[in-house]
UniProtKB/TrEMBL annotation:
Protein name per its UniProtKB record: TIGR00299 family protein
Species classification: unclassified sequences, metagenomes, ecological metagenomes
Classification via PANTHER family: NICKEL INSERTION PROTEIN-RELATED (PTHR36566), PYRIDINIUM-3,5-BISTHIOCARBOXYLIC ACID MONONUCLEOTIDE NICKEL INSERTION PROTEIN (PTHR36566:SF1)
Native source species: marine metagenome
Keywords noted in UniProt: Nickel
Pfam short name (any one): Ni_insertion
Entry-linked InterPro entries: Ni_insertion
Amino acid sequence: MLLGAIIDSGLALHELVDTLQKLPLEGYSITSRQEERGHIRGTHVTVDIDSEKGSGYSIRDFIEIIEASSLQVSIKSKAKEILNRIELAESRVHGEGHPLKELGDIDTIIDVVGVVSGLEALGIDQLYCSPLPSGWGVTSSREGPLTVPAPATMELLVMAKALIAPPKGPYSQAGELVTPTGAAIITTLASFDPPPMIIEAVGHGIGTKDMPTIPNVLSLWIGSAKTASSMTNLSLLETNVDDSTPEILGYLQESLLTHGALDVWFTPIQMKKNRPAVALSALCYPDMEAILTKIILAESSTLGVRINSLRRFESEREVITVETELGPARVKLKKTDAKITGISPEFEDCKEISISTGIPLQEVFRIIEGKARKSLEM
């Protein structure tokens, strides 16, 4: 359904196929067609796999295929992160060395690489998700019936502390609504605090099952968080920690950012009994206070969290794409009173160009900023 939504949003099927052909992989074919579910029209993507070549893979097999491919470094990295998350969840649920069954089919790596590359092709640099529907009941598998959500799916949601919506009303009769692969993709790439945004395109991915109580449709909204200069109400979460290792603190910072913190930083401090320590600070929107506070309490040794309300003045920002001799690159514009007062090339785009061309990163920044200034007549 994610692939369907991406194609329905504007990615041509042949672009997806061209990217997937960079994988040293055979035994599958991809088709798409327009279908309806519950009077909602969208794109249904089918991955047909060869019964002899399309199954029996391990996560290590998939990762080796990705590493041997000619995919962009950023796509490889994100795809491997998703697959490693699947492997960890499977090992926790079934034990080390347990065969993947359905997850060992080729469509797993097709879905993962296809979604990662598709989002990049559409220029989506940040993904947000509404609470995931938990589903209800029992689903079938090659190993027999499984509860819904499937054990691996539930473990992925637990690992990510993902927001889920309990089964109510028509959702209580819908069966399985989130698969392990879908859960791994979303919990790796998305956060659950969508900001106000200007919607520019909508794509609908159509699921295979035609459910009687709800439309089996996944919607992808594409837009920009293009905000004018304004005051924003924020919350500052703080706590002092004097007995955690750098590894634990680094993991805590990553977890907070993944789950919606706007910024996280550490400040060296001195505590009682002459103990050196750090003050953890996390900036977030007020509606994320409870979630992030729970993460801080669960992932650190602290016994309490201070919460302060504050206001932040934000300049207007706009992201444009600049065509250069090195390839297209995004550039962030800072505006004050509708006048451009700052230009900043996007780091990830510059890094990709530097890796692919061998040109030093600082030189790439200089070239792209110069081209942006010229195109904007600055």
